[in-house]
Write a structure and sequence with these properties.
Blueprint lengths: L1 H24 L21 H13 L21 H9 L11 H10 L33 H15 L14 H6 L8 H7 L7 E2 L2 E2 L15 H9 L18 H4 L2 H12 L3
Antiparallel strand pairs: 1-2
Helix pairs in contact: 2-5, 3-4, 4-5, 7-10, 8-10
């Protein structure tokens, strides 16, 4: 009995010592707080800063280079789109409403199917339908001044005059909140709200950049589908570049929207 008590006392002493040592002697590593989105002072914004903003959006929030890159060949390269924009307007196939190169680039971002570069349309549409998502809606959701910033960046990159005007003011947080989309009520609304159909065949949409989801329920269970939406990089799909799918659906979707989408996909067989 005495031996047992000695072991217990010794074990407690060791635990207390290490607990004290860990809390008092080892420097604590405090994680840095999450980055705060910079507040834009439109009154002092220079064109150089605006172009830099466009470059940041192009490589980040806009997810543009996921498709517009020399590796995948999924979409036209945009290095010289500032120069080619005027030529596109003269293409006999062009049926859009743009009158200038700037208007053409903007139109291609908000109405991608207004003109599809030959060879880059959805399969079977004879290049009349673009697989590109509308950048001002869905998961990308660029604001008007962010679209303009990207245009300014593309014009500057192509070496043509930047014709975009600097924005006078950024939308206030109150305005953005007022225009925030209400929670979707059906799975089809979830698909439309987050632009899933821009890349996938799902819910009547004919996206061609990502895997076909029309019968995904016959291959995958709910746990897989849920994890794929929340953490796409954890389970890459062979034949499709990792990182192509937006990584922030878990932060943007409500729990109800997520489960509606998961249940809908699981029943797609």
């Amino acid at each position: 009995m005495k031996t047992f008590l000695k072991v217990v006392i010794f074990s407690l002493a060791v635990i207390i010592f290490y607990a004290f040592y860990a809390n008092k002697m080892i420097p604590q590593v405090k994680p840095a707080p999450p980055p705060v989105e910079a507040k834009l002072d439109m009154g002092s914004l220079t064109m150089e800063q605006f172009i830099q903003m466009g470059e940041t959006i192009f490589h980040g929030k806009g997810t543009c280079e996921l498709c517009h890159n020399p590796v995948g060949g999924r979409a036209p390269l945009l290095d010289q789109v500032g120069k080619r924009a005027e030529e596109r307007l003269k293409d006999p196939r062009y049926k859009g409403k743009a009158k200038t190169g700037e208007e053409y680039i903007r139109e291609s971002m908000v109405e991608p199917s207004a003109f599809v570069v030959a060879g880059f349309g959805v399969t079977g549409t004879n290049d009349t339908q673009s697989p590109m998502p509308v950048v001002t809606s869905g998961a990308i959701g660029l604001k008007d001044f962010e679209v303009d910033a990207v245009i300014a960046y593309l014009q500057q990159k192509a070496g043509v005059p930047v014709t975009v005007q600097l924005p006078k003011e950024a939308p206030s947080a109150a305005k953005e909140e007022a225009h925030a989309a209400a929670p979707a009520k059906t799975a089809e609304e979830v698909v439309a709200k987050y632009g899933c159909g821009a890349c996938h065949k799902v819910a009547g949409q004919q996206g061609a950049l990502g895997p076909d989801l029309t019968k995904i329920g016959a291959k995958r269970n709910k746990d897989y589908l849920r994890s794929k939406i929340l953490d796409p990089k954890a389970t890459p799909v062979p034949g499709f570049p990792s990182g192509m799918m937006p990584q922030d659906f878990g932060a943007k979707m409500t729990a109800g929207e997520l489960e509606m989408l998961v249940n809908y996909l699981a029943k797609s067989k």
